[in-house]
């Protein structure tokens, strides 16, 4: 399990650097509540962007983004409402993205950013 956790943490670090390079400002990482966790909450100065980060060491068993199914998307939306309430944000324009990272050993990571994924 530790190797999987390390891969996930590495993927999130890569995703955050990528998002910041795109001009986004990260507001929260790994924000948790009873309902679940948000990987990254950021802003692009126009809207709040909730990013689910999926990392795999290969695509042997499918692309990382395929793991974000409708059930997972619904959970992320519910947790986002909790984040908004906790941060006293009454209303803002929201976007839900998926950042997929494939980090094969010995190769540069490949990043695919799906904007407005769900």
Description:
It is a single chain. It is globular and about 45 Å long. It has 118 residues and is α+β, with helices and mostly antiparallel strands. It has a five-stranded mixed beta sheet with strand order 1-2-3-4-5, with helices on both faces. The model has no long low-confidence stretch (mean pLDDT 95). It has helices spanning 2-21, 70-86, and strands at 25-33, 36-43, 48-56, 94-102, 110-114. The chain has two helices and five strands, in the order αβββαββ. The protein has a single domain (2-114), classed as Trna Endonuclease, Chain: A, domain 1. Helix content is 31%, strand content 34%. The chain starts with a helix and ends with a strand.
Write a concise keyword list for the protein shown above.
single chain; 118 residues; Trna Endonuclease, Chain: A, domain 1
SSE order and pairing:
Blueprint: H1 2-21, E1 25-33, E2 36-43, E3 48-56, H2 70-86, E4 94-102, E5 110-114
Parallel strand pairs: 3-4
Antiparallel strand pairs: 1-2, 2-3, 4-5
Shape: globular
**Average predicted confidence as pLDDT:** 95
Helix/sheet category: alpha+beta
Q: How big a fraction of the residues is strand?
A: 25-35%
Number of helices: 2
Number of strands: 5
- Taking strands numbered 1, 2, ... along the chain, how are they ordered across the largest sheet? 1-2-3-4-5
Pfam family, one: UPF0102
InterPro entries: Restrct_endonuc-II-like, tRNA_endonuc-like_dom_sf, UPF0102_YraN-like
Protein name: UPF0102 protein SAMN05443637_12378
Keywords: Endonuclease, Hydrolase, Nuclease
């Amino acid at each position: 399990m530790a190797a999987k956790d390390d891969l996930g943490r590495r993927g999130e670090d890569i995703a955050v650097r990528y998002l910041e390079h795109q001009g986004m400002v990260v507001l929260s990482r790994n924000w948790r509540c009873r309902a679940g966790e948000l990987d990254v909450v950021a802003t692009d100065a126009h809207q709040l962007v909730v990013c689910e980060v999926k990392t795999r060491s290969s695509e042997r068993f499918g692309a990382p983004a395929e793991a974000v199914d409708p059930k997972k998307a619904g959970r992320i939306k519910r947790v986002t409402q909790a984040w908004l309430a906790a941060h006293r944000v009454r209303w803002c324009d929201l976007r839900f993205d998926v950042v997929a990272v494939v980090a094969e050993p010995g190769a540069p990571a490949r990043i695919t950013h799906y904007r407005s994924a769900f």
